[in-house]
Known about the structure:
This protein is of the alpha+beta class. The chain has helices at residues 2-24, 26-29, 93-108, 115-129, 165-168, 194-203; strands at residues 36-39, 42-45, 58-62, 74-75, 85-91, 151-158, 176-179, 213-215, 219-221, 225-230, 238-246, 249-265, 271-274, 279-281, 288-289, 304-307, 316-330, 335-352.
Amino acid sequence: MKEAHRPLLATAALALTLSTLILAGPAYASTGVGTGTGAGTEQSAGSGNKSIYAAARIQYSGAVTKDGSAGNVTSSDVNWTPPPCWYAPYLGAKDFKKKMSGEIESAKNTPGMGGTAGTAIGEMQRHYEDDYGWTDTPGYKDYNVENDGKGMFWAAVENPDEPDILKRSSCNDLPFWVDNGEAPPAQYEEAVTPKILAALAYQRMQLPDTKVTLAPEATTKVNLPTWAWLDKAVFDEVQATAAINVPGFSIQATTTAKPVSLKLEPGTTDAETFPTSGECAINADGSIGKPYAKGDAGKTPPCGIRYLRSSGDSVFKLRATITWKVSWAGTGGAGGDLPDGTFGTTQDITVQEIQAVNR
């Protein structure tokens, strides 16, 4: 029975959204409905006061962007993406009644809101006011105000960094009630969990912009090995935490990234890397490569480059990309792995010819 009602109630949610946009005006409409907006290190849903979407704030801390935007980590798994949307705590019963009943009345009085959309809005009103429900989705009497303080209505949140609007808006179930201390009903697979928070922390993680130490530094000679290394002191694990704390519901997850390797890309095909793959593994002490020392001039570096031609009047763009192993741990002992992350920086390298002296 639920499947028969889902399209109609999805129409109701859409109709309510359209009504909200019309009533809110161009300034609100331009930002979309229900998009998560960053504020410092917090993220909440709803770009204006007309949104019916979840307003529970996700609090970010640690190595994350300060404006709530996506961080600088690139997933090594091209098929992995952060959650495009989720369900989160929204409002208590009395506040929800005030908000939702006002939205429904506005939608009903919006010009052109007839036919299927009008019918859907009417059924949504019955759902919250007259105990109208269906299989595994109970209805509510007077917006469940008799249980105010004993739980919250949950609603959808869109990930503002998801470019696909269809994915971003795919959490289109109507707001639903969850008692304090209880898990959301099983059919809401996108209900926020520590794992979802871990993925969102991953998406906003800011890895350090670590510059590889080179010897010779910045300027080298053709056929002269250039040593490259990273000291553990400036190259260590980073953590980002995401948390939700509202009455009756509190979860968090910490995502940890540990450096595991460095890849060198010389910026030209006329070069050799050490090792040949260009992948420098992490040492037992957490460093990468080996610092150049006096007397190493004739040796092959464990991590480095040899340029085979001059850069002329220009420079080569040496790219150093660090691979980070990413894992997470959250409330209730939950945890696991996330795809490896990568982040690279470039350095200008001048390569000169060795000048011969004729006597």
